[in-house]
Amino acid sequence: MSAVPMQAAPQYAPALQPTYLNVQRTIRSWLLTTDHKRIALLYMVSITFFFFVGGVAATLMRLELLTPRAELVTSETYNKLFTIHGVVMLWFFLIPSIPTVLGNFLVPLMIGARDVAFPRLNLASWYLFMVGGAFTLFSIITGGVDTGWTFYTPYSSTYSNGHVVAMAAGIFIAGFGSIATGLNFIVTVHTMRAPGLTWWRLPIFIWSLYTTSIILVLATPVLAITLALMALERIFGVGFFNPAIGGDPLLFQHLFWFYSHPAVYIMILPGMGVVSELIPCFSRRPLFGYKFVAVASVAIGVLGFLVWGHHMFVSSQSIYAGMIFSILSFMVSIPSAIKVFNWTATLYKGSIRFQTPMLYALFFIGLFTIGGLTGLFLACLAIDVHVHDTYFVIAHFHYIMVGGMVMAYLGGIHFWWPKITGRMYPELPAKLAALTVFLGFNLTFFPQFILGYLGMPRRYPVYAPEFQVLNVLSTAGASILAVGYLLPLTYLLWSLRYGRIATPNPWEATGLEWTTHSPPPKDNFETTPLVTAGAYKYDSQAAEAQREVAHV
Amino acid sequence: MNANASAVRTYILTEIALLGLLALTICVAYLNLGLLNPIIAGAISVTSATLIILNFMHVRHSKPLLWIFVAAGFFWLGIMFALALSDFLTRHWR
Amino acid sequence: MSSSPTTPILAHQFEDATQQRDAATIGMWLFIATEILFFGGMFLGYTVYRYTYPQAFAEGSQHTLIWFGGTNAAVLLISSTTMALAVHAASENRRALLVSLLLGTASLGALFLVIKGFEYAHEVKENLLPGSSFHIVAAEPLKAEMFFYIYWLMTGFHALHVAIGVVLILIFAARAFFTNAFVNHDTPVDLLGLYWHFVDIVWVFLFPLLYLVDRHS
Amino acid sequence: MRQLFSFIFPDQASNLAPSVDAIFFALVVLCSVITLLVFVVALFFCVRFRRGSKVDRTPPKGGTLRFEIAWTLIPFFVFCGLFFWAADVYFAMSRPPGGATEIHVVGKQWMWKIQHPDGRREINELHVPVGRPVQLIMTSEDVIHDFFVPAFRAKQDVVPGRYTTEWFTPTKPGRYHLFCSQYCGTNHSTMVGWVYVMEPAEHARWLNQVAVSESLVAEGERHFHSRGCSGCHAPNSQIHAPLLEGIYGKPVPLSDGTIVIADEQYLRDSILLPNKQVAAGYEPIMPTFQGRISEEEVNAIVAYLKHLTDSERSQQ
Ligand code: HEA
Ligand code: HEA
Ligand code: CUA
Ligand SMILES: [Cu+2]
Questions:
Q1: Which residue's alpha carbon is nearest to atom 39 within ligand 2?
Q2: ipTM of the assembly?
Q3: pTM higher than the cut 0.80
Q4: Tens digit of pLDDT for each residue in D52-109?
Q5: How many whole angstroms separate alpha carbon A486 and alpha carbon A180?
Q6: Is residue C177 part of a domain?
Q7: Could you give the CA distance from residue B91 to residue A318 in angstroms, rounded to a whole number?
Q8: Is D182 in the pocket of ligand 3 (CB under 6 A)?
Q9: Is D93 on the interface with A (CB under 8 A)?
Q10: Which of A7, D8, D144, D226 supports an S-S bond with A2, CB 3.0-4.6 Å?
Q11: Tell me, what CATH number does C105's domain have?
Q12: Residue D300 lies in a domain
């Protein structure tokens, strides 16, 4: 097993050395920290909070949709709910989720650095995120916004009555936090790798985050200017998108999706990165086709910029542009296909264990495949005409984002929990929770595919009575899902105190982060590691042999 | 000292070229060249920007890696223009 | 150069000075890339509308003050040179020269803003500020309003960048004058220079696009 | 069984529906196969190579390259096929056939206003005969809406400031949902209605039920005079303005040297934004009518101007 020098970790000595958690204990030392690991925890707490804000909105929406009439809440409130849900879940939970929590924690550890390149910028990005979040919460509390997360003009710029400007400002500010994070990661990966850690030796997680960062850095400014223009138009009454002075509402959509399509890859690439760590570790096999998976990440990132117009097939954009965007959407699916097949092939001849992180990883593969394949339906021009803005789209993206990315996030949190906290989570409740989430999830969102093809439009608090049965199923699923999400919250908190003490490398994983203590000391490594081999040097035969010895 | 003088000379020469290009672009704007007008103006702007990037921003003497970062912003801007205009320019085709 | 009162400060996360310098330079260029795309959104809008309303853009452009804009272009180009020289001076640890060149650059930046201010004042007087009071004698007043909206928007964002730049340069000049922060540590000045040159490049594009549309007619 | 099917599958009531559904079913089959493949293989590996099972684990020989090539190229070709199929249908969906009944639709928060060629108006209802192609010429008075009839598999955004079109040939009599499927504000979800597809005879009866005073063309003619268009555009006018007889569908040289085809969008723009495209040889003196005349009036005038062309053609 430990043929790799990086495995020769210093012996675990909890009492001797302060960890990053207990070097300093004041609140101040947390709020002014520049340690990437502490910033990761700041983010973890913040986005968990935002997840529940978005979750409460989802719960209320699903309850409202139990009946075909707007009985629980008015249409106006419902519209605000899905706006809150979309905005908070995307910009304040999913986009920051893996990059800012696991990414901040792991990028320096995985490349053998003491910190990211710009630690103070890193802290600043958290503050930007929080200030942006404060603006958003302010706009929610003082009356809400009812534009949908897409802010289409001229509705948002002229007709809507909510606090659109405050919410746009919130997203704008948080966006600069994203840019700062992305910039930091790119520079860190380029300049701070440990000696010997060449590009082809980097874990896929790093490749994924690197690509994610490229998207963050190059797409987010376009969102910023788009929202700024929309807000200016709202404030001054004249602007780019105003049909009254010859403005073209489609220009807004182009600019918005120029950011927002690449953004969906911000939301999946880090998940793919996590899964690429989990699958090899729990099947004790090197990742199948490592280089192809790495290149596929970058390909998704770059090609992802070329397909935004597939959200505009029925918007009256040129039909020829529609065709270009359609074929490119198919092309961007190829690297995803490559990844799915490589993960599956990694299992072959493995020695597979089914701890919780692995369960999440397997669920990820399954649900991402379904979500991605339904993306192909949407990329098919003729079909999209029918299912655009119906629940089919809703189901598609929840399959990828909730079924994919949230699963990957949970899997990653469980996997690195011992490293982050120094404690093991309890295995049995964790497995139960994973199963609950999986079942609840499918019951919630599978019926929505059918609803969508039947023609139920999205953003409809009042709907035709024949859609009710499927909606009730979906709501039932959502309540199971809610339980599934509350479980990890409880037992993970429990484990902080009562969990088993973790060894430096409880999963016998490769990767530099496992060569240091759990939790790591403030400067991560006692000496700068020297890397002499690539990632994923797993050996299933050795693992089996070891098991036999243990059992004899 | 020699390297020093040559650096300063580069800056001054670049500056003279830039001011010349500025004068040129203004003059050309007053000639009616039809479709060539915007093309020439664009070409002059691109030339000036390239001069600034290479000489003032020292990219000429930088590592290849930096060239990639310099190009990235413009490359992605190009993507944005190409695909967005694929809509606006073909919208009236039937 | 022989005297080196301070050695460059190495932040704890870096192994050596080259690494630190590389990181800073790459970071700055990435930031410039984000700025390119930030302005890019507006340039795309400009392109689309100019293509759709060529007439109105030509007419609108006739109403801009070309000599103000042209002078400003020259002012910014010259300030780029002084900035480049300032960076050079910093790399040679010539503090006095660095301070005066920074001050020169800042004054040129300020001059730009003053000229721009007079231009804006003139335009407000002529009712060329889009909004309820906008008035223009043109074949397509509404489309001309779009032109002026774009004009104010883009020059406004650019002026904001210039203003930020001037403030930063003044801060740097003060630090260079009162402390020896940049002695043997010229990376910050270098980055400031990159920012300033970028601001200049934006104007290199804005000027012909806004002031020179169909000037001949 | 049938009932279950209709519970999970929408009616097919237009010519477009079968061709869209064909792609849909093909994709369902294809994707189910792939999903099953991935699931079965993954499950098989999971069970067979679970920790502790006694199987041969010697690492497989040979590189991964041939696999990678296979699963890059196979999807590539499948995707190209899918693209062409769907794009072909989409192309047909975007191009209305000649001779379709032209019905004007105006969306506004939160209702659909419909103008038939005979001048009949409806709100949130659309009555069409079975078997005849219908083309909707749509615009919006405020924000973006979307005219969506699931049973027809037809959907198109309705955008302020321009005309968009949507067409279908209803194939099955019945009553079908009409939804607004672009979010447009508070009552977006009640901006719904019904499309009635009727047997031709029944439709004729419906037409005769209420007498309409004037056709859309006649209405347009009335506006053309009352709004003062004829003051400039009449043959005997003192003002130098183009004659509009026969303009529809013809190429018009513009003052900037380009030539455009005078389609609905052009006529509409000429009325609302007259200086957007100025006809060559004329002064840009036509006043803008934006804000002074409603979308429905514009529709009527456009119909009238088009009629001028049709009648001229039939005279020849
Ligand atoms: C993480 C988020 C995420 C991801 C990764 C994706 C991935 C994809 N999406 Fe999705 N999408 C969204 C989030 C996401 N999407 C959201 C949020 C919306 C709605 C926004 C809104 O309007 O509010 C949306 C909407 C959306 C639309 C517009 C629908 C509409 O509004 O009309 C389209 C259309 O093309 C689309 C397509 C795709 C495609 C082709 C992919 C591909 O990348 C998928 C690639 C993956 C696979 C294809 C699966 C794996 C492949 C195989 C197992 C091999 C298959 C082999 C063969 C078929 C031979 N998406
Ligand atoms: C990261 C992204 C993300 C995530 C995680 C989710 C999670 C969920 N989403 Fe979300 N969704 C979006 C992104 C996301 N969604 C987006 C972008 C839209 C489009 C918005 C728009 O149209 O603008 C959307 C729209 C959307 C709709 C369509 C609304 C409409 O168009 O009318 C629906 C309807 O069912 C829905 C449901 C759910 C559910 C049930 C969950 C569940 O997974 C959530 C489960 C979590 C919890 C339930 C929280 C934990 C439990 C509790 C807090 C219990 C306590 C609660 C109470 C006591 C009240 N979502
Ligand atoms: Cu009209 Cu939605
Ligand atoms: Cu997309």
A1: A58
A2: 0.89
A3: yes
A4: 888 888 887 777 788 888 888 999 999 999 999 999 999 999 888 888 899 999 998 8
A5: 31
A6: yes
A7: 4
A8: yes
A9: yes
A10: A7
A11: 1.20.120.80
A12: yes
